[in-house]
Design a protein that fits this description.
globular, Beta-galactosidase, Chain A, domain 5, 8-stranded antiparallel sheet, mainly beta
């Protein structure tokens, strides 16, 4: 049954991409699904569904660059690939030596329709207990590096969930966790804590991981993985629209948050999903 499902799924992926329509990939157990789509303006978007409940509604991707146009719309899909991954990898330390890596993977290849025709891949991995995705910015003529002012990954929530959070402090994680509705998150109220050696809270944002509980009792944790040669991610909070948007940690030395030679891949943006916590 599992083999039949994968053989059936992969043709759907390719036929959908050719028409720039919705593309879906599911976890091995079929309970978690990612839907990828392009808006009429060519904006890449994703949606995450657990069983029949939408966890993350259609949310957009993008990068704000120094001395270059935004990377966020005007894209077309030029190809894709999908596969099932079943492997084990060994941790350098920890209680559990080997970790099972079982997931379904979809890579969508995008290119801007107009000049400068930049290319970007979005790689999704869908697990039985969550979703991860990351970007690959590709090399091309006359562009050998990028300076990223900020990343514009959205997590559009579907309700005013209960949140366990600490403020998006650029200097320190040693805050006590607060519990509130997403609409009530006030990270700026945590500024100037006298018991901290140093603290910088520039925005109403939370550090990751941030854990959320939906009205149905589902638990969601948003975080990142493989943070290598890249700025850490906080999540800026829009309390009215219930949107969390990536805000990269910066410094007073540079305007940009990340400078990388092309090609490179970003850290994973992860969404863990649990029916019990």
């Amino acid at each position: 049954m599992k083999v039949f499902y994968l053989l059936f799924l992969i043709p759907i992926l390719f036929s959908c991409v050719e028409g720039s329509e919705k593309t879906m990939i599911a976890s091995p157990d079929g309970l978690n699904k990612v839907v990828f789509n392009l808006s009429e303006a060519g904006e890449p978007m994703y949606q995450i569904v657990h069983r029949s409940e939408v966890i993350i509604d259609y949310s957009t991707f993008g990068f704000d660059l120094q001395d270059a146009p935004l990377i966020n719309k005007g894209f077309k899909v030029i190809g894709s690939s999908a596969k099932e991954i079943s492997e084990n990898w060994e941790q350098p330390w920890g209680e559990q030596r080997t970790v099972a890596n079982n997931c379904s993977e979809l890579i969508v290849h995008l290119q801007e329709e107009n000049s400068p025709h930049r290319r970007m891949n979005i790689q999704f991995r869908v697990f039985d207990d969550g979703v991860g995705f990351r970007y690959a910015l590709l090399a091309q003529e006359e562009i050998d590096s990028v300076a990223i002012l900020d990343e514009k990954t959205e997590f559009r929530l579907t309700g005013d969930h209960t949140a366990w959070w600490i403020p998006g402090d650029w200097d320190i994680y040693e805050h006590l966790y607060s519990t509130s509705k997403v609409s009530e998150i006030d990270a700026l109220s945590k500024r100037g804590h006298t018991n901290l050696a140093q603290t910088t809270i520039p925005h109403n944002a939370v550090n990751t991981p941030v854990t959320l509980r939906t009205k149905s009792g589902l638990h969601i944790a948003i975080h990142e993985a493989n943070l290598t040669d890249y700025a850490g991610m906080t999540l800026k909070v829009d309390p009215e629209k219930l949107i969390l948007k990536s805000g990269l940690v910066g410094s007073g030395n540079q305007d940009y948050k990340v400078k990388r030679a092309l090609p490179f891949t970003t850290p994973w943006r992860t969404i863990q999903i649990g029916e019990k916590a």
